[in-house]
Amino acid sequence: MATNKQIHLVSRPHGEPTVDNFKLVEAPVPELKDGQVLVRNHYLSLDPYMRGRMNDAKSYALPQPLNEVMGGGTVGEVVASKSDAFQPGDKVVGMGGWQEYTVISAEQRGMLRKVDTTHIPLSAYLGAVGMPGVTAWYGLVKIIDPKAGQTVVVSAASGAVGTAVGQLAKVRGCRAVGIAGGPDKCKYVVDELGFDACIDYKEHKDLKSLTTALKEACPNGVDGYFENVGGMILDAVMLRLNAFARIALCGMISGYNGEPIPMAAPQLLLTNRVKLEGFIVSEHMEVWPDALKELGTLVATGKLKYRETVAQGIASAPEAFLGLLKGRNFGKQLVKLV
Amino acid sequence: MATNKQIHLVSRPHGEPTVDNFKLVEAPVPELKDGQVLVRNHYLSLDPYMRGRMNDAKSYALPQPLNEVMGGGTVGEVVASKSDAFQPGDKVVGMGGWQEYTVISAEQRGMLRKVDTTHIPLSAYLGAVGMPGVTAWYGLVKIIDPKAGQTVVVSAASGAVGTAVGQLAKVRGCRAVGIAGGPDKCKYVVDELGFDACIDYKEHKDLKSLTTALKEACPNGVDGYFENVGGMILDAVMLRLNAFARIALCGMISGYNGEPIPMAAPQLLLTNRVKLEGFIVSEHMEVWPDALKELGTLVATGKLKYRETVAQGIASAPEAFLGLLKGRNFGKQLVKLV
Fold first, then answer.
1. Pairing between strand A241-249 and B241-249?
2. Residues A193, A206 share a domain
3. B252 vs chain A: nearest CA distance in angstroms?
4. What's the confidence (pLDDT) of residue B1?
5. Looking at the predicted complex, does its ipTM rise above 0.85?
6. Which residue range is the domain that position B256 belongs to?
């Protein structure tokens, strides 16, 4: 019987998490029961929302239980099946967790989904054609709902979600402006993804400097803001909002370790009659078919580009995750398991 | 010819406004031209939004020009008319400004509207059956959209807008909880208006105390929040929001003199998937007929109660307005001119 290497959460962080919060555990791959499928996971997805689940606090996601396999999205291949719905060789996406093999009950609706890798690489189902892509789609299409010619700004612009937000905005005839950390990420966002501009927030240490940069990048103001970061970046964008602007509040990674991230001037939401909405994409399953259809077509035709940072082997997952929280990744952060 | 006493804005405030920003001016009542109507104003409405117009800053309202009559809503009686649309004796509501007489061009659509005082007192057209009432209706019905059994909280609960918010919420089968300043206002809101509870914010000097009081008053959390105040009150309510709560952002009077009013924990908007919307009711004229129909019926049948604080004479308007900004009024602040 094969051995299954897993990463468990063994303690909760106080502030910034460390590798000591995680533990590599070896377990046997269990025997399949009727209706079950054994998946060998090829890629594990690392995502900022996982930081929230490390806490024991009330949030939209249930806390990750201690001493169990960390939850997370995976793509892989069916290697054994006691279900008529899946055959060995099927490529699948699911919530396999931070481990090499996963046993899944095929009947559990939505737990495992076959995917077609003819025109779309398997790993893309964890990124542009997966949860991050649909997240971008929902916030942009359903909350920001931009009109052609409007200006859409997205923070963490080179990340898995941000890259899709800007490119989907460009498809809709908008001016897309990114905010990212460092010249390489900004250059990539503009030169390779086709954003109209990208601001390197590391070059702007105070609100005034960042606001001035936004004014240059958004000469007609900001009509839609897709927020992944919070803190000073949100404050700066709020100073450039147009009347009737929309803010899709997707993440606030600058506060995920408990840092205070007050909003300096909430009265701007009133004076500009802003609509702001916090959301989590798993609560809007009704949009997934439409979103995946557009995202899949755009990826298959080369019109939606993305970049991946790939760590090797399950043991590398904790370190790669901590890097993601610090913005060390460049595009979608994955762990390659095969 | 009659003399027309007016209040002009003669200087802009730095921080808190004073009576010296205003000046009483006597002017002749001009001769009517064809199509014009002369209205003797019976009541002038004083409203928090006027503070914003005293500044020269970009906001939703144009700045009030210096050395001109302060703008404002009025009700009164037509005393002379060179228009077929109005006859002397007609009771009307319009934007007559801080003055005793107003000349209005009858053709200017929406500037002057006849009202029926058979079942509704004239002054109510500046309150429960006027702009404040429609403001309450829009924020509650169109943004908060509460379901029966849900909990709706409103700040400045004894004010012209707040009283209507809570009573409209009760009509819809909600739990209505007010926040107001002082025991008299709180007692009125509960005993006379039928709110389920009211919190005296003056009894709670810190966030923890106010949050604890909210927890008691809202045992099932907060589903909708109608915000008129901002600052610590907003922070406290945000700590009690349920998932998918809605915030109608109508006013933030605690910051109208330039005080910093940061939002302590905007990440709660994300974790609770909150929808927040800033609005100004004059941009939603399409709802006025529906809103006024419900508000008028409720007032005429005694189901929507309100209270007025009435200052006497146009000369008292500046002082009364400054009192309004400090919460010295109790219910709708009016100036009686006749």
1. unpaired
2. yes
3. 7
4. 59
5. yes
6. 131-282
